[in-house]
Description:
The protein is an alpha+beta fold.
Amino acid sequence: IHSYLWPSEEMRRSVSDANRHDDLICSIIDQGQPHYRPDLDLDDPHGEREHIQAAWEGPVRCVLDVPFSTGTIALNSLKPDAFDQDLRQFLVEVANVVEEGYHRAADLEALQDRRQAAETSALERERAFERLEHSQQSYRGLVEDLPVGIAHSTPDGQILYANPQVREMFG
């Protein structure tokens, strides 16, 4: 589980190592419903207050997690009961937009993979064609330089190919 924290002006990235916290986040994602803890000082149902306060280096009182397919939008506040119903609903809509963005990014990645595969396939075909052309030139050079006559014909006698020695022999 990766957490992206924006304290003051700089963005920090940390990886959570608290398994209980990771399990809670995964559970929230699986349930697909916003999870609001209005006052961690009065009620800390998941025992997460210390973990959150350590990560934020301050007395976080209120926490809101709004899940989407690959994560949550998490808000913390120093004030209890800081997020009203309108804000929570707005964040659900934002999470839907974020989820759509992740889906589109995954679609773009799949298109890039298919494009790369097509380019690789085209390059392999081009190389195979070059090898075939080289092989044909080598074979033609060998057949044309042999001191014996070689010809290729259809069953009814139509000549498809004759090397120079056959042409010399039969005119």
